Amino acid sequence: MATTPRPGPLSGVRVVELAGIGPGPFAAMLLADLGADVVCVDRPGGSGLAVDPEFDVTNRNKRSVIVDLKAPDGPARVLDLAARADVLVEGYRPGVAERLGVGPEDCHARNPKLVYGRMTGWGQEGPLAPRAGHDIAYIALTGTLGMIGEPSRPPAVPANLLGDYAGGSLYLVVGVLAALHHARATGTGQVVDAAIVDGTAHLSAMIHGMLAAGGWQDRRGANLLDGGCPYYGTYETADGKYMAVGALERQFYEEFLSLLGIEEHAGARKDWTRWGELREAVAARFKSRTRDEWTTVFEGSDACVAPVLTLREAPRHPHLAARGTFTDHGGITQPAPAPRFSATPTQVRTGPARPGADTADVARDWDVPDLLKGLG
Question: Which residues are catalytic?
């Protein structure tokens, strides 16, 4: 029986995901959002930090089978899937997949065209490669964590967005797609070593250029884009909420001052000696009205000012609502697939995959009948 056509530019691409936590599942979700047929190989009992499967949005648009890789026939089931896949994604510590019998050599022996994507924090080699870690430690070593926050306080923790997802998942997906292009052109697969430390360091390329040119100080809260500049930062409002300001260019800065009502500070834009008084003036004005009142003042302007919204508020913002940036599926409000495509539109097709729920369908669609062994 043929599988149902899937929307998205990756329709027809088959991906095996060896279940894990964090950046691996998010990367596989992105591939699934783009239309790939992603089969997540869940382990019996689930993973230690897993969200309730009913709400784990990173497993949307996927299908799930359960395979015990420590059982005698477990690795063979994964290799059967790998033989029929275009991509395999795993997030184990270096050497674990090899010990389980599903490493790159095992998989390429069955499928030379396979793109084997490896997601780790430290990478496949180097002194820290075998060590445990999480997002905060990875970004700490790259210098990026030390850039974020006020100069008189400890570095601010940007959830796990900067390391796990930006420096990890997104770089894994870019690498997998590039390697997939190469595999289709040459018939040869390869291993993609996506390390969070590498990707996060790469994200700071522009900053390193500015640092070398003398345009960036190697400390927090002293630069144009890190809160050191009084017209690029956040300010508290009368109701304890916040507004974000990014009025960098002269014309935007002047409009910002005009709407804020402090035009007398126009000359402080490039005069660092006056930044302290400018910051105080901006802060005092913002404290005089509520966030919603200031939102109305700046609405429709080019002053580059926006309200700082919460996670629950964001989907209701008129612009994001008009674009459909968020969507509701199965009672869960969640970000819609991104980016957007004119010829191959994407969508949330299914809710979070329930572990093992799709074993029979995958066994049929991928022609791997042995997946059904052990099912009741």
Answer: 134, 164
